[in-house]
């Protein structure tokens, strides 16, 4: 009798537990199905919040859609590799068709954010307000310098260091990470006001067309380029300097 009573109690307890278990399972499933689709995560995608703020991704991590080779030049140096825009190194005794990679869209006032890493002894740069009126991108577009500060062959002047406005403005701090590590950079252009940021540090600030800017221009290599820094709206340009460099997370927000 005691044994039968124990069995009956066990059955009652078991039956009482089953609905609760099913309820928990149903609750978990409901939670899964009602959770909003996750925002794009990982490299080269802007979040829903970033989209609401006006940010746009210029590189999808898969193709070069949205980009072209400067003035349609023949090119064999740029490729998409592991979610990056990769500029291959110069090949000795090989076929080298080099050119800069240029955005299809032109921009006037904007905030541009991008990640990059440079190879040992490497050199590159990001230019803005580039015009295809001239034979080379640097004839019009100011350049945010990207370089191996420590290992680049030869002596580098302060105006040639990472984050500089190339040959014009010296970065106020050395904020670049070692070769092979990813850096995060930002260029802000609003009217004539320009800022260069490197790993959350503002390293350069200047006014296009100001007395100081005109003086520096007259003392630099740009004195021989009549269109330098004068374009009001132009392309974003990734420089091919014959060295290996990688770019990703290229986001822009028009201002």
TrEMBL record:
GO MF annotation list: hydrolase activity
Biased composition (Low complexity): 25-40
InterPro entries: AL/BT2_dom
Domain of life (superkingdom): Bacteria
Pfam family, one: 3keto-disac_hyd
Listed Gene3D superfamilies: Exo-inulinase, domain 1 (2.60.120.560)
Region (Disordered): 20-50
Domain 3-keto-alpha-glucoside-1,2-lyase/3-keto-2-hydroxy-glucal hydratase: 54-253
Name listed for the protein in its UniProt record: 3-keto-alpha-glucoside-1,2-lyase/3-keto-2-hydroxy-glucal hydratase domain-containing protein
Species name: Ohtaekwangia koreensis
């Amino acid at each position: 009798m005691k044994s039968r009573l124990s069995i009956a109690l066990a059955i009652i307890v078991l039956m009482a537990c089953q609905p609760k278990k099913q309820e928990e399972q149903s609750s978990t499933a409901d939670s899964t199905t009602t959770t909003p689709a996750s925002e794009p995560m990982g490299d080269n995608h802007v979040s829903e919040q970033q989209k609401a703020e006006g940010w746009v991704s210029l590189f999808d991590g898969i193709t070069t859609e949205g980009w072209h080779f400067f003035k349609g030049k023949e090119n064999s140096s740029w490729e998409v590799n592991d979610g990056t825009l990769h500029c291959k190194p110069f090949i000795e005794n090989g076929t080298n068709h080099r050119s800069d990679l240029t955005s299809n869209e032109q921009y006037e006032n904007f905030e541009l954010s991008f990640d990059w890493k440079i190879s040992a002894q490497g050199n590159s740069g990001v230019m803005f307000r580039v015009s295809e009126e001239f034979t080379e991108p640097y004839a019009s577009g100011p350049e945010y310098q990207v370089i191996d500060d420590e290992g680049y062959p030869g002596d580098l002047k302060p105006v040639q260091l990472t984050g500089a406005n190339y040959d014009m403005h010296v970065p106020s701090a050395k904020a670049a990470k070692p070769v092979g590590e990813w850096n995060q950079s930002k260029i802000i252009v609003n009217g004539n006001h320009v800022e260069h940021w490197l790993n959350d540090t503002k390293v350069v600030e200047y006014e296009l067309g100001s007395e100081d800017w005109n003086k520096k221009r007259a003392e630099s290599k740009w004195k021989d380029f009549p269109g330098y820094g004068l374009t009001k709206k132009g392309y974003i340009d990734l420089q091919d300097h014959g060295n290996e460099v990688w770019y990703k997370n290229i986001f822009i927000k028009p201002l």
